[in-house]
Structures are given as C-alpha cells and as structure tokens.
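// run 5 | inverse folding | seed 20
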C-alpha cells in the first residue's frame, strides 16, 4: 500500500512516518521543508516539498497513492488544519483516492463532554482557542465529504513508546479518562485504521 502523509515533519507525523515504514508501507512524506526530515532515510520513503495551503501542490503530489494520513499542525495561526484538510479532500476526490485518516483533537464535536474544566474552559476556551476552532472547522470539512474517512480525536500528546494499551471509541460523556495519549500510540492507532472498517465514516476518540 502506498501512503501519503501530510504533516509528516511534525511530532505526530514523524511517528506515523517511521511506523509506516517499519510496517512495510511505501510512504510519501509531504512537508514544507525537506530539511526537517533529512535524518530519515529509507528505500520506501519519498519526501516531497509543498504547501498544503496551495491546491496545486497538494493535487500534484496526491496521485498514485492508496490512502492518505493527515496530522497537520497550525504553524500559521489557526488556518492550516482546516484549509489544508479542505485542499486534501478536494485533491483526493480528483485523484480517485478514497481512504482518509485524520487526526483532530479530543473535545471536538460530540467528544466535548469528555473534557474536564481545565481543558474545556482554560486550554480550549482561552490558550488554544484558535487551534480548537481550526479543528472544529477541519472536522466540518471531513463530515461533509463522501470519502471513506476516519477522524481520530486524541487527548493531549505525551512522549513514550507504542503500548497499544489505550481506550478508543468511547462515548462522548465518558469521564474515566487521563485525557492523554502518546504520539507513538496515536500513530499506531491511525495506521491500524488502514486495515479495518470499524471506524469508517466515524470519529474515534483516543486516550489512556
């Protein structure tokens, strides 16, 4: 299977990239700066440079893949996730690619009830307000798509190795959560979605 990863040079994207290569996938890493991935070399890795906010860049590099993974960050103040995802979905449709797995955030959509006071009102209500709004709009674009998508909503990122020992797909009112997940376990879960329809056209929340 040939994958293209958007946000590949971010902290989650790098985990996706490394784990995908370890699992035998052929990977295209889409990044604004090839230098940020210069330390990773693999015969099944192709690194392409482009701007996810540029429709032509996205479409040019989309063709020829079987599935798309998205772990975009917001390096340019609250528009990259939503507008970038919109461009990705449009390019996928034009290129005839159907499978899309996208990382958003726990607390988006009907998972807001999972958050505690601190995350709901202080972090997403103030400090990360723009990022939260960007994720919400990002999900709107995905929900409107007719592609075979899966939204993955992780808790706050931590370091650590893949454990596979995490909760997923829990109800939006579940409170017995740590509201944390390692980047490695997040990447593990996202890659697993390529081989199952369990969360086809659904959002799956993720936390320890």
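// decoded
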């Amino acid at each position: 299977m040939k994958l293209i990863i958007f946000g590949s040079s971010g902290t989650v994207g790098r985990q996706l990239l490394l784990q995908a290569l370890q699992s035998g996938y052929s990977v295209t890493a889409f990044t604004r700066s090839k230098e940020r991935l210069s330390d990773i070399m693999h015969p099944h890795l192709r690194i392409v440079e482009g701007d996810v906010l540029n429709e032509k860049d996205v479409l040019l590099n989309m063709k020829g893949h079987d599935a798309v993974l998205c772990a975009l960050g917001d390096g340019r103040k609250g528009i990259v996730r939503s507008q970038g995802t919109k461009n990705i979905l449009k390019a996928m449709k034009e290129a005839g690619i159907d499978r899309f797995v996208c990382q958003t955030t726990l607390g988006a959509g009907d998972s807001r009830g999972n958050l505690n006071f601190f995350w709901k009102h202080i972090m997403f209500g103030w400090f990360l307000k723009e990022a939260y709004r960007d994720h919400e709009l990002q999900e709107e674009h995905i929900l409107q798509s007719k592609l075979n998508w899966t939204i993955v909503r992780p808790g706050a990122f931590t370091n650590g190795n893949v454990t596979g020992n995490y909760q997923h797909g829990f109800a939006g009112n579940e409170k017995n959560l740590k509201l944390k997940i390692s980047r490695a376990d997040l990447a593990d879960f996202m890659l697993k979605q390529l081989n199952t329809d369990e969360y086809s056209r659904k959002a799956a929340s993720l936390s320890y």
